[in-house]
Amino acid sequence: MTKKPSAITIPEEYLCPISWDIMTNPVILSDGHTYDKSSIRYIKNSLSPITKFPVNIKNPIPNRLIKGFIDKFIVKNKIKLSNKKKPNVPKTKTKSKTNQKQKTKTVKSLSMQSTLKVKPKWRF
């Protein structure tokens, strides 16, 4: 009998509230919330999708703290992202000189609503 791959539960804080994908480049906007930088182009009329107040999307501030947590989570759970979404994790040197191939688990779909059972708090 073959084992079914277990679903990885991604913390809601690591998901963009616009796309519900894991954030690879988290930024803070003037409403104080964190979004993925690639998703802020979908904000219409410069209104925050969470607070519905005007938000400045031209000057996002990188959220390095969340970025570090997400990168560690991706490495720890051996999540393989597409080429566009690779975390900036420094490579560590191994003590042995032999090449050791590590097995990685792949997530077939990063659609958070279907795979990870995340219910969004709001919808467009």
What does this structure look like?
This protein has 124 residues and is mostly loops. It has a domain of 81 residues: Zinc/RING finger domain, C3HC4 (zinc finger) (Herpes Virus-1). It is built from 2 helices and 5 strands; from the N terminus they run E-E-E-H-E-E-H. The protein has a 3-stranded antiparallel beta sheet with strand order 2-1-3, covered by helices on one side. The chain has a two-stranded parallel sheet with strand order 4-5. A hairpin with a 5-residue loop joins strand 1 and strand 2. About 24% of the residues have low confidence.
Radius of gyration: 17 Å
- Secondary structure class reads little secondary structure
CATH topology annotation of the domain at 12-82 and 106-115: Herpes Virus-1
Count of individual beta strands: 5
Low-pLDDT regions? 85-90, 94-117
Identify the quaternary structure here.
single chain
Q: Would you list the SSEs in sequence order as H and E?
A: EEEHEEH
